[in-house]
């Protein structure tokens, strides 16, 4: 009974397709991933024979009982433009997609700092550079920009289609993703496709599938469940307030009176974007069949409060593993930004350090943004540096470019030496500071953190504080606002870390 019910629900969720069809994500101007088998998928009438032609390949499939089909194209070298054609023996009209390129495909996701467009943002001085937009004609760069969408269940398709990168389309494209794409074009010399799926102000749980969230344990799972319940309650109240305001405004207009300006509605989480799984369901699940090289990710600011911050060390790597499972790609590259600095009392240190610890997962890389932050604005304007640092990680980790320094100094170990701690680093050759070293702390015997002084000693840093005679641990850049930075010889900065286990 339950199996039949599930099958019925799945069939109901599929597109009603008398004619064989393709998803919108496989539209004209798409970019397919080079050098690996590529999935082409769609829908049709059960038991229909489907023939797929692309470049010099022909593949066949039979539509399953739920109305879905897929084929795997053999690996293709970078090139194009090509035509993709799909025919069904029970369909009248073939599906044809033109101007398809083969190259590198990356997903750009996260919250507002990844969403931050090339045109900049109001209230962020220095973020508008019209000359960059005017120069944004790149026919070998393609964009699939997913609109804000929410769903309680995983969706099968998106409404959006691929476009060429032009001043008009790049205007709203993620600035970090834009500069990342241009770097890939410069160094890989192949077409680049960017799939942007972002929503400002959203926590990591919203971007994780419900199956992925179920893999969490203990406090992390409890925090996600509690957050989901609270945000749902708050959203319900906010929706009622919105409805009441709409009625009041309509009555005022009917009476010929002016409608007053309304303030923000408390607890209005973008119509439910804080609810666990909702963004994954609507803005990631439909893309999961798409063959991609990797993900660039910029998120974490929404998780800097309370238990969310403490548990980010679990929820963030869990989300990475979940996406790899959902995309059926256990080695999918996942490159992320360690969030910047902000004059804020939330627990930014825990989130930044959790991001550093996520580097334990294979095929991951981290771009540090501490030194380009703006303490009074959560949206630093310099997204070009962010994109370029992410591209450095891709060039070294994903594309295997040799002898390329791609990361700033990364904490390796801390060794007590009397009343000081000596810190060693990977990627630490040529340590240097711009100005004085600062933002270091030592933990005393009672577990208190004490401001400390630091000095560079070759490829290590020695940290001490007069009141700490037997330091237990050392950390750097833990506060929201960080004012002192140090670098390696490549000019790449160190990020927040702690030696605590």
Could you estimate the helical fraction of the residues in percent? 25-40%
Tally the helices: what do you get? 11
Net shape: globular
- Quaternary assembly: single chain
Here the CATH topology of the domain at 410-498 equals Immunoglobulin-like
Largest sheet: 11 strands, mixed
| CATH class descriptor of the domain at 410-498 | Mainly Beta
Strand residues, percent: 25-35%
Poorly predicted ranges: 1-15
What is the end-to-end distance?
A: 49 Å
How many whole angstroms does the radius of gyration measure?
Answer: 25 Å
Main structural class: alpha/beta
On the 0 to 100 scale, the average pLDDT is 93
What would you say the CATH architecture of the domain at 410-498 is?
Sandwich
Number of separate strands:
22
Task: Write up this protein.
With 501 residues, the chain is an alpha/beta fold. The chain has a domain at 410-498: Immunoglobulin-like (Sandwich), CATH 2.60.40. Helix content is 27%, strand content 26%. The chain is built from eleven helices and 22 strands. It has helices spanning 2-13, 112-115, 130-134, 167-170, 175-188, 210-214, 218-254, 278-283, 306-326, 348-357, 383-398; strands at 31-33, 38-43, 49-54, 57-62, 68-73, 79-88, 95-110, 138-145, 163-165, 192-198, 294-298, 333-338, 364-368, 410-417, 420-426, 432-433, 440-443, 449-457, 460-464, 473-476, 486-487, 497-498. The strands form four sheets. Strands 1, 3, 4, 6, 7, 8, 9, 10, 11, 12 and 13 form an eleven-stranded mixed beta sheet that branches. A hairpin with a 5-residue loop joins strand 17 and strand 18 (449-457). The longest helix is centred in the middle third of the chain and has 37 residues, at 218-254. It is globular, with a radius of gyration of 25 Å. The model is unreliable at 1-15 (pLDDT under 50).
């Amino acid at each position: 009974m339950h199996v039949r019910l599930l099958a019925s629900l799945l069939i109901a969720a599929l597109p009603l397709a008398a004619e064989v069809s393709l998803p919108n994500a496989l539209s004209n101007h798409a970019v397919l991933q080079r050098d690996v088998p590529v999935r082409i998928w769609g829908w049709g009438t059960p038991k229909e024979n489907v023939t797929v032609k692309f470049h010099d390949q022909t593949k066949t499939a039979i539509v399953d009982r739920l109305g879905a089909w897929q084929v795997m194209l053999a690996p293709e070298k970078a090139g194009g433009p090509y035509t993709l054609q799909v025919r069904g023996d029970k369909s009248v009209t073939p599906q044809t997609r033109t101007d398809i390129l083969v190259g590198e495909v990356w997903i750009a996701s996260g919250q507002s700092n990844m969403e931050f467009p090339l045109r900049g943002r109001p209230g962020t001085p220095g973020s508008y550079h019209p000359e960059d937009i005017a120069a944004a004609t790149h026919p070998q760069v393609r964009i699939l920009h997913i609109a804000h969408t929410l769903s309680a269940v995983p969706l099968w398709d998106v409404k959006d289609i691929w476009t060429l990168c032009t001043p008009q389309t790049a205007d709203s494209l993620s600035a970090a993703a834009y500069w990342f794409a241009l770097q890939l074009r410069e160094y890989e010399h192949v077409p680049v496709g960017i799939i942007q799926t972002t929503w400002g102000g959203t926590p990591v749980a919203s971007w994780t599938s419900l199956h992925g969230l179920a893999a969490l344990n203990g406090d992390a799972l409890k925090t996600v469940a509690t957050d989901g319940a609270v945000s749902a309650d708050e959203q319900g109240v906010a929706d009622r307030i919105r409805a009441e305001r709409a009625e009041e405004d309509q009555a005022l207009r009917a009476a010929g009176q002016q409608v007053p300006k309304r303030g923000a509605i408390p607890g209005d989480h973008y119509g439910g974007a804080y609810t666990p799984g909702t963004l994954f369901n609507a803005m990631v699940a439909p893309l999961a069949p798409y063959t991609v090289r990797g993900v660039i990710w910029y998120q974490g600011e929404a998780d800097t409060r309370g238990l969310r911050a403490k548990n980010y060390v679990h929820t963030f790597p869990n989300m990475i593993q979940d996406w790899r499972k959902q995309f059926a790609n256990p080695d999918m590259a996942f490159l992320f930004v360690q969030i910047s600095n902000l004059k804020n009392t939330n627990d930014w240190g825990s989130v930044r350090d959790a991001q550093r610890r996520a580097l334990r997962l294979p095929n991951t890389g981290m771009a540090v943004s501490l030194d380009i932050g703006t303490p009074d604005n959560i949206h630093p304007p310099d997204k070009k540096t962010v994109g370029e640092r992410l591209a450095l990680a891709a060039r070294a980790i994903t594309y295997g470019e040799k002898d390329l320094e791609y990361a700033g100094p990364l904490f390796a170990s801390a060794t007590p030496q009397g009343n000081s701690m000596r810190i060693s680093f990977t990627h630490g050759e040529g340590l240097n500071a711009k100005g004085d070293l600062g933002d270091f702390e030592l933990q005393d015997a009672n577990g208190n953190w004490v401001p400390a002084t630091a000095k560079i000693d070759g490829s290590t840093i020695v940290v001490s504080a007069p009141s700490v005679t037997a330091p237990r641990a050392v950390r750097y850049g833990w506060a929201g606002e960080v004012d002192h930075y140090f670098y390696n010889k490549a000019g790449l900065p160190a990020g927040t870390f702690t030696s605590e286990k």
